[in-house]
Amino acid sequence: MATTAYLGTGGNNLLQPSLLSSSRGCRCRSSPSKVVIPARPGSGFGNLGFNGRKSVMWLIQNGVSLNRRVKTSVARAEPDQLGEGGAKQEVEEGHKVSAEENWVSESQQKASQLKKRVIFGIGIGITVGGIVLAGGWVFTLFLAAAVFFGGREYFELVRSRGITEGMTPPPRYVSRVCFVICSIMPILTLYFGQIDVSVTFAAFVVAMALLLQREIPRFAQLSTAMFGLFYCGYLPCFWVKLRCGLQAPALNTRIGAVWPILLGGRVHWTVGLVATLISMSSIIAADTFAFLGGKTFGRTPLTSISPKKTWEGTIAGLSGCVATSVVLSKIFGWPTSFLSAMAFGFLNFFGSIFGDLTESMIKRDAGVKDSGSLIPGHGGILDRADSYIFTGALAYSFVKIILPLYGV
C-alpha cells in the first residue's frame, strides 16, 4: 500500500490528498510505511514525517491553525496598508499646503512690487512736478536725459531677437549716433526755438552713414533709424516748445497771483506752464483711472496689441482725463471756456492712449515685457513716458493753433 500526499496553499485545506491508491499486485516497488513531505521554507514545520491516518489528522489540525495565523497576520497588516493610504493623503495635503504657500508668496511678491511701484511713482511725480515748475534749462536738460535713455531703449528693442527675425537692424554705431542726436534735439529747440532744421540735418547724417557702410544697406535699417529720430527725438521736443516757448502770462491764474516773488512771482505762471501742468496731470489721471477701471470692470478687450487693456478701462481713463482737465482749468483759470477744457482733455487722452499702444506694439514685436529696467517697479523710460511722446505735439498744436483759431 502506497500513500502519496502534498501540502497545498489554497483554501482552508493545508493538506490535500492528491492520490491515494493501493496496488496489491505490484511487486516491483517497495511499500514504504512512512512518507516524508517537505514543507515550504518559513512555514515552521520543517520536513514532516507521518505514519498512517493519525499523522494526516495531526497535519490537518496544525494546517488549520497555520491558516488562522496567516489570516491574523493579514488582519494585522491592514493597518499598515491604511497607513500607506494615510501617507498618500498626507503627501496630497503637503502638496496643497505647498501650493498655498506658493500662492501666498506670489501675493506677497505682487504686493511688494505694487508698493515699490507706488513709492517710486510718487517720487517721480514730485520730482517731475518740481522740474516743470522750474522750466528753462532745468526742464530742458531733464528732458534731454530722458530722451537719451529712451532712445537707447528704443534701439535696443530694434536689435532684439523678436524684431531682427524679420528685418536687418541698423549697425550699432548708427544706433548710438541716433540716440545721441535725439538727446541734443531738446537743447537745440530751446536755443533756436525751432526743430525743423536740426531734424532734417540729423536725418541726412544718419542716411549717409547707412548708405556708406561696408555692408549692403537695407531699407529696414533706414526706416527704423528714421522712425527712432522722429519717435525719440522730434516728438519730445514739443514739450520744450510748450513749456518754454509759450511765455505769455496766464493772467487769470489764481495760484499765480499769490505765487512768491522769490520763485518767479506772477510772471512765472505762463500759458506754457499751465498747459503743461494740465496736460501731464490729465495723462496721470488717465493712466490711473484706466488701471482701476480695467481691474474692477474690465471684460471686453480693447485690442490684440495689448491684451490687458479693455474698453471699460479705456472709458474710465477717458472720463478721468477729461474730468481732471476741467477741474484744473477752473483752478488755474485757463482755458476759460468749459468746452475748450473738455476738448483739451479729450486730446490729451487720445495722445496718451496712442503713444501707449505704439510702445506696446514695439515691445510685442520685440518679444519683451518691459523696454528696460531703469526705474524699479516701472520698467524703462519708454514704459513710463510712452503716454507723453505724442501728447506734447498735440497739446502744443491745441494751444498754438486751435485756441487762437477760435478766438479763445
TrEMBL record:
It comes from the Eukaryota. It catalyses: a 1,2-diacyl-sn-glycero-3-phosphate + CTP + H(+) = a CDP-1,2-diacyl-sn-glycerol + diphosphate. Its EC number is 2.7.7.41. Pathway: Phospholipid metabolism; CDP-diacylglycerol biosynthesis; CDP-diacylglycerol from sn-glycerol 3-phosphate: step 3/3; Lipid metabolism. Keywords: Lipid biosynthesis, Lipid metabolism, Membrane, Nucleotidyltransferase, Phospholipid biosynthesis, Phospholipid metabolism, Transferase, Transmembrane, Transmembrane helix. Coiled coil: none annotated. GO terms for biological process: phospholipid biosynthetic process. It is an enzyme of class 2 (transferase). The chain crosses the membrane at residues 118-149, 191-212, 224-242, 269-292, 338-357. Pfam families: CTP_transf_1 (PF01148). GO terms for molecular function: phosphatidate cytidylyltransferase activity. The keyword Transferase applies. This is phosphatidate cytidylyltransferase. It comes from Morella rubra (Chinese bayberry).
